[in-house]
Design goal:
Layout: H1 3-20, E1 38-45, H2 48-59, E2 62-67, E3 73-79, E4 82-89, E5 101-107, H3 111-120, E6 124-132, E7 136-142, E8 148-154, E9 170-177, H4 180-191, E10 194-200, E11 203-210, E12 213-220, E13 229-236, H5 239-248, E14 252-255, E15 266-270, E16 276-281
Parallel strand pairs: 1-4, 5-8, 9-12, 13-16
Antiparallel strand pairs: 1-5, 2-3, 3-4, 6-7, 7-8, 9-13, 10-11, 11-12, 14-15, 15-16
Helix pairs in contact: 3-4
């Protein structure tokens, strides 16, 4: 199965999630704008059972099984009293390419315009816009640098209410870009808003802002061989302890908390199937 088919499967899973959830579990936050924020995430993995065994204890998650058309399973992720994402199982191809990854859905006001703008900027539509029930539409694209991202036009948000109840939830998304300035301009073309720039020890950090609120970050990749990607940050009580617990359960720690990287509040790991993610201590947001 190709990556394009994989992304289509993830969107079908999202459709199943949207169609069957009780909306009392969804964070319909009318104060925070949706456009420019990430409101759902899917884990693509070659072993859902192993992923559940890894993520359940690490983040305190619970899971619900759904079935897609043809009996294909889709696993809903529950953190606290809300659904925050899903899991889709797909075996890696014989080519040796690793498909395991987290895919975030970036909210736009006009999905058709956003997909057209992606193509015009040099990106590619992997899965064309499709209906997700009667309140959302979504597509999957490669942005102009090749980073995979979902685009979604939705009336519902899936986000933590506050830092106090955010453990196990995705609290920040950050693009590691080949050209951070160009990438910022591209994503603004999809949603409007502004880009805030802050000089840090490791260079300029850019934040996508919409209606005055920080929604996602963009950083220049530290090495040319690093493929551009979106990195999702998961809230934990202590990033160092969580990284050690993850390593004890088969994860690989790519970046342990260190004082010269965001004051030691983050760690970056790959889960046992190879999907990359960041751990964020709850005492300080990733964007600060």
């Amino acid at each position: 199965m190709s990556l394009r088919a994989l992304l289509a499967l993830a969107l079908v899973g999202l459709l199943a999630a949207c169609a069957q959830q009780n909306t009392s579990n969804l964070n319909q936050d009318t104060e925070a704008p949706l456009a420019g924020s990430f409101i759902w995430h899917d884990l693509i993995t070659d072993d859902v059972a192993a992923a559940k065994a890894f993520y359940g204890p690490l983040f305190g998650w619970r899971f619900e099984r759904r079935e897609l058309a043809g009996g294909k399973p889709y696993t809903l992720i529950i953190s606290g009293d809300r659904y925050v994402g899903g899991m889709v199982e797909l075996a890696d191809p014989d080519t040796g390419e690793d498909y395991s990854r987290w895919i975030g859905y970036y909210a736009v006001d006009d999905l058709d315009a956003a997909t057209a703008a992606t193509v015009a900027a040099g990106g590619m539509v992997a899965v064309a816009p499709r209906e997700l029930g009667d309140f959302a539409r979504a597509a999957a694209v490669h942005d102009p640098e090749g980073a995979v991202v979902g685009l979604i036009e939705s009336q519902l948000a899936y986000r933590p209410r506050s830092w106090e109840d955010s453990k196990g939830q995705i609290v920040w998304n950050e693009l590691v870009a080949a050209d951070a300035a160009s990438a910022g301009n591209f994503y603004l073309s999809l949603t409007g808003g502004t880009v805030a720039e802050e000089q840090r020890a490791r260079g300029v950090y850019r934040t996508l802002q919409h209606q005055g609120q920080a929604q996602a970050g963009i950083m220049q990749r530290p090495a040319d061989e690093l493929t551009p990607l979106w990195l999702s940050y998961f809230a934990v009580r202590d990033a160092g302890l969580a990284a050690q617990a993850a390593a004890d359960s088969g994860a690989t720690v790519l970046l342990a908390p260190t004082a010269d990287v965001r004051e030691g509040t983050i760690a970056v790991i790959t889960d046992p199937s190879g999907a990359i993610l960041a751990l964020q201590s709850m005492n300080q947001g990733a964007s600060s």
